[in-house]
Every structure is written in C-alpha cells, then in structure tokens.
Amino acid sequence: MPVEIIVRPTLGSYTARAKGHKATASRSEGQLQAAAALLRKLELTDGELQQQDSSHLPQGHQLFHFHTSDEISSTMTGRDLRIMSMAAATPKTSISPRLEHSREVDHV
Fold first, then answer.
1. Where are the domains of the chain?
2. How far apart are CA 37 and CA 100, in angstroms?
3. Positive or negative, the Cα torsion across 57, 5, 68, 2?
4. pLDDT tens-digit readout, 6-25
5. Whole-prediction pTM
6. 12-33 burial string, b = 16+ CB within 10 Å, else e?
7. Which of 23, 49, 71, 104 is 20 to 30 A off residue 14, Cα-Cα?
8. Phi-psi bin for 69: left (phi > 0), alpha (psi -120 to 50), beta?
9. What is the pLDDT of residues 28-64, one digit of tens each?
C-alpha cells in the first residue's frame, strides 16, 4: 500500500505529512522537495514518488504517493518484466571517435 503524503503551504515554505506517521518535513524550495525530505526522514528511499491529482484538496495543497520498489515489482506484469530484461540486455551504443573529437573545445 502506498504512503500518502500531503504537502501544504505554510508561511513561505511547504510542510509535508504522511498519513499514519507523526513526522513532518518542511522545505522552502518546493512541494516535491518537502515530500522527498519527509521520505528521507522516514527512511523510505527505495521506491518512486508520484504526484497525484489534488483537485479535491484545499488550494495550494499537493498529494503525493510513494510506492516502494517491492510494490512496484509486484504489480508489474510478465510483459513489463520482459521489456525491462530486454532493455538491460541491449548493448549500449558508444560515441564514435569522430563525434568525440568534434566535441572537444580549444582553450586559448
């Protein structure tokens, strides 16, 4: 089950609170940064933070969901896993020497 985080504006900063948790985090940079700071405080670092529709919340409030890596992998279908394994097996292309040379800059 995802962790639900609501971020609200407070006096020039943003305060994030997760439902079911007492901890809060505040950042002046933005709503996403406040939500990410709260996740670090809760020691939830392995997963994905997604912004959700917040039209049902008071003005200025933003809703985020955090899904752990385990939740993400358990919801993937066999097709998703095949695509990921194919992408991992695809050799990475390298820049040709000619293109690398053209990126060099002469310093005076």
1. 3-87
2. 39
3. negative
4. 999 999 999 999 999 999 99
5. 0.66
6. eebbbbbeeeeeebbbeeebbb
7. 71
8. alpha
9. 999 999 999 999 999 998 889 999 999 999 999 999 9
